[in-house]
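Appendix B. One record, verbatim.
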Amino acid sequence: MLTTLLSLPAAMALDVNDEGRVLVLYDGTGVRQINEITPEGDWRALTDLADTCRSAQFVPDSRLVVVEHDSGGNERGQLSLLDLDEPGLPTLTPLVHDLDYLHHLVAAKPGRVLYTTNRRNRVDFDLIARDLATGADTVLYDGGGWVMGVSASPDDQWVVLTVATVPANSFQLLLVETATQRVTELTPADAHNDQGQVSWLPDSAAFVVSTDADRDRKALRRYELSTAAWSDVLVDDARDLAAWVSPDGDQLLVAVVDDGEVSLATHRLSDGSEINRLDLPAGGCAALSMTTPDPVWSPDGSFVALTYNSPTTPPTVHRYDPATGEVVAVPAPGMPEVPKLTLPESLRVPSFDGEQVPVFVFRPTGPDLGSTVLHIHGGPEGAAMRVWQPVIAALAAEGHTVIVPNVRGSASYGKRWYSLDDRELRLDSVKDLAAIHAWLPTIGADQSRAVLWGGSYGGYMVLAGLAFQPELWAAGVDIVGIASLVTFLENTSDYRRATREREYGYLATDREFLESASPLSRVDDIRAPLFVIHGANDPRVPLSEAEQISAALEQRGVPCELAVYTDEGHGLAKLKNKLDAYPRAFSFLRQHLATAE
């Protein structure tokens, strides 16, 4: 079952052009490549690279496509052009290439491409416009900071930037006038605000943004350039909202985030009234997750290209017709049949201080082994969403009960919740794991056969659980996890250190705490077997984190297996590596759970 599920391809909608053609990110070859879907539904491969494509956009008023791709998972995106008029597989022509730095595709405009890059000092990200005719670069913003989001106005006179600021998981909105590079602060630099999607009105007079400024949940707010005035568009005190304005400015496509599920509906921009709720299956996500890119309106507003996925459905491109309300799936050619899977239960677990931890519980679909796997998301300000997770489905098919928690610090449950693990509160999120362990008998699970599994920050949580709660856990699977918060911050990429310290603590002032919260500082207490997966080119969590925890356990005689992939970065992107690593991890758990008391 694991091989079958891992091998199911995913397709994600990226862009739509004037002809109604759709660009998609598709991994049917085992590596994510760019494909095009014609209005008639025909598919054409546009790239066939050895490494992962990250994004792509049509260049308006041309037959060109700009592609962002990296090497071996190093995340140093490079930009290339391809010509759709070229028969067969188009040739990729370098546009912005410097292998030492990151270049992220922002937008393709008529005759130019906007991108961000850290090539000035490796830390700050500048916004650049590359002229396609001359190759000349124009700097639109170089005011410093990690520019996390960019939204250019339709008339190209303005750009809204989302820039990371000092409070954890907080971002400032900046308005840049492109002709003069004049910057206006739209929100305070020291405010504890998370900013989401920015969507301009077609006349460039205003934009709508998803923001939790002055509230716990993300609402939709409108900013008028002429008056510098803010106003509420839609507010839901219990759920996060995001939106994309239609090309005619009449409608909003609104996403509603509710306990890991993301639904879509259209609303009138003028009064916020609902027009139509999109007919998508319940229990999944149609936006706002790592496996679910933003929906894209066609330039004429005749349809929306979107991606839908769920715990039972791989990411699939859909077309929504606002005129009829019809939503049609556009499956990839030759898509295999998806095995019958089940959706999880949504429950709450009482924690040590009375907080309630949201969890999704996947019951075994194979013979019940009595064992439990806690599958912990990365971030830490990420979230476990109701998305396609073939490893989780395969663990359930293996016979495990799989619990997917949104421990404190997770996004999508409000500002208060995602702030409960900041800095000195770091280990409170680890205590949530112990609370879940104590709760296991209420769902009929065997506490002696409980395992931790997680990637990135989830990998840190695995190691922290094994180190700080050694009597609770029977085994662990750590994927690109942090063993020491100190060495992680010392050795991660410069641009990441600048923003990650605001979440974890600063090396200059918080070293003692960082050491105390590091699993490596308690490595002598770890007794559970550990399986470690890491990419050699990881720019976020260096390979040295995996090497040092593995070496320390090996020295103590604790069973530990380290699987390193030389052509991967922060996690496994290539099917061939997934088909090697995950069966080994399953076998490792099978072996050690057989001897668990």
